[in-house]
TrEMBL record:
Protein's name in the database: HTH tetR-type domain-containing protein
Keyword set includes Cytoplasm: no
Organism: Streptomyces avermitilis
Residue ranges the UniProt entry marks as DNA-binding: 36-55
Keyword field: DNA-binding, Repressor, Transcription, Transcription regulation
Length: 200
């Protein structure tokens, strides 16, 4: 009977978290395609058996690097969208939050946008569907404000979404921790730009 891999290491860190942390560090430093499974398990201090117990492949690790951030962002967006507050406040909060959570996970964002093309067609399709759900919920907030007359309808909601997320997706190319702006300051300025674009 095969031994079941331990779920934690000596200090109590769950093995899946160790593997993800090691993979994220290596993918960010070397690139997904130049990182081997052997290097990941050595960095995590586990066996290949442990990796394949929790993740079916290196491809699964790449997908999870991005999916874990998107899950958090989706939960937070849903909470903002469902809140009992004026539409302008809800959209501004959502627009700022996606900036902060992206900056908080810059390595993940950089890895994803640099390496998404390495995903299998099935995983690629899954990621696109997950991102589409997020963007559709965000767009629904803009459309709600446009229907209420709070936001201008001069620019289609789809284009406004692309405008904001174009900025978000490029954060990993220029934002540096310790720079002149804090994550919240960047988030506030980008959210303000979005709302100015929607002003009637």
């Amino acid at each position: 009977m095969a031994a079941v891999p331990r779920t934690t290491d000596g200090d109590g860190t769950p093995v899946p978290q160790r593997l993800l942390a090691a993979a994220t560090r290596l993918f960010a430093d070397r690139g997904y395609d130049r990182t081997s499974v052997q290097e990941i398990v050595e960095a995590a201090g586990v066996t290949k058996g442990a990796l394949y117990h929790y993740f079916g492949s290196k491809d699964d690790l790449l997908h999870e690097v991005y999916a874990r951030v998107l899950r958090v962002q989706q939960e937070r967006l849903d909470a903002f969208a469902d809140a009992d507050a004026p539409i302008e406040e809800r959209l501004r909060a959502a627009a700022a939050d996606v900036v902060v959570t992206t900056i908080d996970n810059l390595d993940d964002a950089m890895i994803f946008f640099r390496s998404m093309h390495h995903l299998s067609p099935e995983k690629n399709k899954q990621v696109r569907a997950e991102r589409r759900r997020y963007h559709e919920r965000f767009r629904a907030l803009i459309e709600e404000g446009q229907k209420e007359g709070v936001f201008s309808t001069r620019t289609p909601a789809d284009l406004v979404v692309d405008y904001h997320f174009g900025s978000v997706h490029h954060l990993s190319t220029w934002y540096r921790p310790g720079g002149p702006l804090t994550p919240q300051q960047v988030a506030d300025q980008l959210a303000d730009l979005l709302l100015r674009a929607l002003r009637p």
